[in-house]
Amino acid sequence: MAIRERLSGNEAVAIALRQINPDVFPAFPITPSTEIPQYFAQYVADGEVDTEFIPVESEHSSMSAAIGASAAGARSLTATSSCGMALMWEELYVAASNRLPLVLALVNRALSGPININCDHSDSMGARDSGWIQIYAENNQEAYDNMVQAYRISEHKDVMLPVMICQDGFITSHAVENMELLEDEKVKKFVGLYEPDTYLLNKDCPMAVGPYSVTDYYFEAKRNQAEAMKRAKDVILSVGKEYGELSGRSYGFFEAYRLEDAQAAVVIIGSAAGTAKDAVDRLRDEGKKVGLLKIRVFRPFPAQEIAEALSHVKAIAVMDRADSFSNQGGPLGAEVMSALYLGKASAHAINIVYGLGGRDVRVEDMEEVYNALFHIIETGDQGSIVRYMGVRDKEFGAGIH
Amino acid sequence: MSYNFKETMSKPERLAPGHRMCAGCGGTIAVRNVLRGLHEGDKAVIGNATGCLEVSTFMYPYTSWEDSYIHNAFENAGATLSGVEGAYKALKKRGKVKENYKFITFGGDGGTYDIGLQSLSGAMERNHDLVYVCYDNGAYMNTGVQRSSATPMYADTTTTPVGEESNGKLQNRKDLAEIIAAHHVPYVAQTTFVQNFRDLHIKSEKAIYTQGAAFLNILAPCPRGWKYNTEDLMEICKLSVETCYWPLFEVEDGKWTLNYKPKNKLPIEDFLKPQGRFRHLFKKGNEDLLVQFQDEVDRRWEELLNRCGA
């Protein structure tokens, strides 16, 4: 029987880590992810885990030590947010290119500046090309479930790539929700033991990690990373299915919510999907055909599957909680639109940047998004492709412009 | 730990030949002789900051390292080996690793005094059971002889070039061994290639077999940056000690010991003269620069004597 609990997202993730009992956990605090290593340090102090917890002096060092530990043959991880991730940027690439199966518990927060501690996705979106698998959560339950699945994906022989388990700063990391935990033994059995083939502490075969690779070899290493990311798709699906058999909650690349006959659809990542679902329900009650596609897996990017799921929709709003400053909207917008093009979709598509630095998103805001989409469907006039929602605007006031 | 030169020198090499380091380089001499401190049968994981040593000894698909080896980046050799040592503790505790491993990481002065100082300081303060070895050649040699905080005053480097309006680097070098000693780790020592390596061999073994964090600072001349004739390497090291520019000392659990006191302290000119990077100091009109250099060496030497009660 599952265990009913009321937990914050940070505590839920910390509990998943307690259940996993990893070998090495180096960490450095940064709001809003600080609680994860704090809870974990207490588990160590109370003897609930026997992990080597290494309280390092910076995030660059937390990821560096996690890499060292993983190369040595240990199951390792760290946690961070925002500028902490920016400081470990170089190491994100090193982890992925060394094909180390480690995990980063990321609590999404805006990047400086101005300095801001609240939620947006600019930290992980900036790292979208670092070679990490990225899995996002709408709520505390999903953050927990994703963490339990992380090592099964990362350590799979077809994958061997690091995994970022992302959740929204404060919105899910600090808000307490009802949720279900699995029993410790079930989690341990599901995650299994880590048995690497090659590692530094292998007495029978020493190993050298991190070579200088000249032009003769570098490109092949990168191509192999790309192939592993491709293979990760099947592994993510099979692990998500197996997790469903264990918990009753199955996971895929994304969740399609009331999308089957929708004319207007929103594509979104993270906690604002919950707000958008409420808007969908309200509008459906009014007889409007609206739906939602909530991205769970952003890396690898399930382009074909997204295009297929949206193939019947007439107008789409892709919601970005990060800006690319490219004059072309945000990262999710760019990738979904390119997926639609490849899928030969004829739908209108706009890209809305929202919620930067923790700016509130209300159900009414999401209703406005659907209204804008119906306006496009009715008039055939797409208007601005890139728009901003909920930001003060001298000319128009708040709203979507 | 009794020292036997013959036994130490007859240990199998743990850094294979065929690497691409320069002739007359101090770096590999430091590495080969530090690794002689390992007891036969003990396994090791070697760490390495980015630098000449890394790019010349582990160029894919070849490695010179007999032991397991990890290079991560320039500024994080301390943190990386902290993670490896943490993994060893965890896996040993859980019965997955049964053998004895030792952890030794090498960095140049760029990766150690400068960009990697924070990572090193963290690893030392957390007292991981590892040895950090700095092979100090006093500049960023891998990128083409740029100044570092280990570069001595008045050295000619590519970012402190000597010119009409410049006599080279204007600042004094940082004293890293003292900084690490201030971390109050169990063992800190400074050495170079003198006395047939006796001092280096003894200190390496001590550092490796001291429980907790240890730091070795080894003066390791670079023929490209220092501009000396490769065959003069050992003589220059000897002069660095005889002029008291590079004193041999160790700090064990906070106790400072001077390991060698020259009978006749030689003038600093003897150390500077064979090096092209100091050529300008011997031009007419620059006599006062040599006096300043000597004053700084004297001041630091006196300070060390006081600290060691010697």
Concise summary:
Chain A has 401 residues and is α/β, with parallel strands linked by helices.
Q: Mind explaining what this structure looks like?
A:
Chain A is an alpha/beta fold. Chain A contains 13 helices and 16 strands. Chain A has helices at 9-20, 35-45, 59-72, 82-87, 89-97, 122-126, 140-154, 184-191, 218-247, 272-285, 303-309, 331-342, 363-379, and strands at residues 3-8, 24-27, 52-55, 77-80, 103-108, 133-136, 163-168, 176-181, 208-209, 254-257, 264-269, 290-295, 297-299, 315-320, 348-354, 386-389. The longest helix of chain A is centred in the middle third of the chain and has 30 residues, at 218-247. Chain A is globular. Chain B has 310 residues and is an alpha/beta fold. In chain B, 36% of the residues lie in helices and 15% in strands. In chain B, the strands form 2 sheets. Chain B has an 8-stranded mixed sheet, sandwiched between helices. A two-stranded antiparallel ribbon of chain B has the order 5-6. Chain B is globular and about 70 Å long. The chains are: A alpha/beta (401), B alpha/beta (310). At the A-B interface, strand 3, helix 3, helix 5 and strand 9 of A face strand 1, strand 2, helix 4 and helix 6 of B. Strand 9 of chain A pairs parallel with strand 2 (68-71) of chain B.
